[in-house]
Specification:
Elements: E1 2-4, H1 14-28, E2 31-33, E3 43-47, E4 50-53, E5 62-66, E6 74-75, E7 89-90, H2 104-132, H3 135-147, H4 149-168, E8 171-173, E9 180-182, H5 187-204, H6 215-230, H7 235-238, E10 243-247, E11 254-256, E12 261-265, H8 266-271, H9 275-291, H10 293-318, H11 322-362, H12 369-384, H13 399-423, H14 427-432, H15 450-453, H16 462-467
Parallel strand pairs: 1-7, 10-12
Antiparallel strand pairs: 1-4, 2-5, 3-4, 5-6, 8-9, 11-12
Helix pairs in contact: 2-10, 6-9, 9-11, 9-12, 10-11, 11-13, 12-13
Length: 496
Amino acid sequence: MVLLSVGLFRSGRFCSHLTRHEQVCARAGFTWKKTQAVSCGNIGHRAGNSLHLRAAPSAPRLLFCGRGPKPCFQISPKTASPLRSGPVQTRFLHTSAPLRALPAPFIWMVLKPLQKLVAIILGRSLRKWWVALPDNRRQLMRQWAWQRRWPLAAGAGVAMVIAALLLLTHLDESPVTGRTRLLVFSRENYMELAALTSQAYMEEFAELLVPVTDPRHKVVERVVQHLAQRNKDIPEMSDVTWSVHVVQSPNVNAFVLPNGEVFMFTGMLDAVADIHQLTFVLGHEMAHALLGHSAEEASLSHVVDLLSLILLTAIWAVCPRDSLALLGQWVQEKLKELMFNRPYSRKLEAEADRVGLHLAAKACADVRASPVFWQRMELIEQLTGESAQSEWLSTHPSHRNRFAQLDGLVPQVVQVLMQNAKDQGRGGSQVASKPHLPHSPASLPAPLSAALLAQTAPPPSPSVDQESGGPVPDVASAPVPAPTEGVGPQVGVQTG
């Protein structure tokens, strides 16, 4: 005796249902396996919402159709011996795992080239259609458009108002800075996309990842956890689980995904002079994740791309030849990059510098190390003879501008921290009792590179002594070390 939880079947209609079921499965392309038919005369009684079936003693199990390796349900006798009354064997229905929709940013990235192709085909088709029209038809259409110019203008105005309302409904406030921004893609969407991106990076760097027992990995892990602990009052910081991956590569680069996956290249570890500069670099990258810059930049790019599709269609419709249309499309792409994408990217980088400086300051790092880091990068550029790219062509601010901006922010950050300490009534003794970053090689793993173990601190900034008005920590000043052989590619540093 077996129990089939189908509930809606009637015992008298089971055989006809099996026949219909087999026919439907055959037409739908399902797999139907039946080694021996079940006798309709052996159908038992229906109790409640279950149906009891009796099979012949030697009847093997009957598999009903289903996609993939798992059947929808199956019927089989409990034993090969003649059936007798006793406990009922129950087989549960197997269902496939639910399918999750792809993240919206991922779908947009996939459809982005297709949107341009559709705009090109539409514009080219309109041009050919207009050229093929007789002269009298063109004149009539021009007259028709001129006679209805006001209704057409009103329709265009309504469309612009609707687009503006849609954009206004997607305005958001930045978590830390409170800046109003456009956010089409939510943070949750980008968390899903970050998980997919993280898997791709892990596969790409599978053979280059530094072991977790490596001193370099331990130092980065320690600094990241220290930054997260000292800034846990920020909800976006405490809601994320931060994990570190150190990649063996000479590239001077580091980035953090929105889900807290930190990727640090060993070239960046060779580029920083001390633990304070490393803290600022990691604070800058973690600030990108806290502020949701990935979703913000993609949202702006998405809106600009949709608006540019109208211009792209017009270019292919107006230009008399395809060669001129291709040239117009190239000019449009360059103007869009130089007027929207790159300036906005530089704005986000500057904001990450400011927020990262505050994160590093709350982690008790020497904030004067942040401008010195970019001054060092500029010096290395000059010594290596590499020509720096113009800022308006880059997605990042120039080293000199970043140094000037951070050097001016250092006194403000010091004053804000001192004022917060006074407001909270903690006093100087409690501020001094905060956990500080390591300052001596004894507190760091021995095999670390010489640049990271160096106790040289950045020279005091003149603006700090003149404007801060507060006590400046007494640290040993030393000149910026000259670049070594292992720090060659520093001129291409990207921290975002």
